Amino acid sequence: MLIPPQRAAGTLLVPNKLQNIVKPAFPSHTISLSGLNLQIKMVTKTEESQLQQLENQVENGGGGAWEYLSLVRKLKVRRSDKVLKHGLTLLNDPKKRSALGPEEWSLYEQVAIAALDCQCHEVAKDCIKVLQKKFSDSKRVGELEALLLEAKGSWAEAEKAYSSLLEDNALDQVISMRRVAMAKARGDTLVAIDRLNKYLEIFMADHDAWRELAEIYVSLQMYKQAAFCYEELILSQPMIPLHHLAYADVLYTIGGLENLQTAKKYYASTIELTGGKNIRALYGICLCIYAISQVTKGKNTEDRKISVDAAAVLHKDYMRSSPEKLALATLVLKTMRI
């Protein structure tokens, strides 16, 4: 569907069947442009309640679309279909659009990114054209142009655009990570690894990048390299249980007595950090103790007690939440001689 040439100035293409367009076009990494972010962010219960209340109000025709869109941008939550739907409603109404004042341009940017996320490339192109006209030399608009090329699968052109932007600012984290995401999307995993390693030489405190690199290494069965990444994450974020759990998983996969004993400790720290509620860690510690006993050909009374306690917690949890799976869980634990 093309935009009619005779449309009024500022009118955007409205896609049909908005409810069916939520098909993210980008790889899973963050798309962030100076405060706009598509990665799901942890929000408080109060914020989530406020957002849901506003969303219901807007969806039911009660107004407040701009307030809702502003809150989505502030909280950096991913609501691309809603942003596209209600953002277009505001932008296609000249009166409402002009009432926004300078915030009109923020909305164009927000809608452009939402449109890209929903694969509505024509809508994104329209928004970017408006921004180009207003801010002809803006690097921020240049980033949007490169994102559009990437979304359309024009890899060579997108690569050229990103490289040009990096020439102006070699320390642009967003663009650097977009190049990583693009390499992954093309299937160039080794290129993605190389770019991530170079990125982390400069931005060593980027936890998301370390986690991204670790996951790539795991997908390639490069477990020792993945373990190094998780060690960096644990050093910088020692209270995040998922880092402990992922590290323990990798060490258990590598195997060997020393790695198994270390994995057991990190499964234990995961259990402690989660108040004994992480099922994977409970199974993990049981598996480690069983594997250690197979290697050492001996019995450790303390380890035996730990595995029995973990099995009891698992049994109680299955009884409470999934009684239909209790028999299977019991069978699995029996194979570990618990």
Automatic annotation (TrEMBL):
It comes from the Eukaryota. Residues 141-250 form the EMC2 TPR-like domain. It is a peripheral membrane protein. The keyword Coiled coil does not apply. InterPro entries: EMC2-like, TPR-like_helical_dom_sf, TPR_EMC2. It is found in: Endoplasmic reticulum membrane. GO terms for cellular component: EMC complex. Keywords: Endoplasmic reticulum, Membrane, Repeat, TPR repeat. Belongs to the EMC2 family. Part of the endoplasmic reticulum membrane protein complex (EMC) that enables the energy-independent insertion into endoplasmic reticulum membranes of newly synthesized membrane proteins. Component of the ER membrane protein complex (EMC). This is ER membrane protein complex subunit 2.
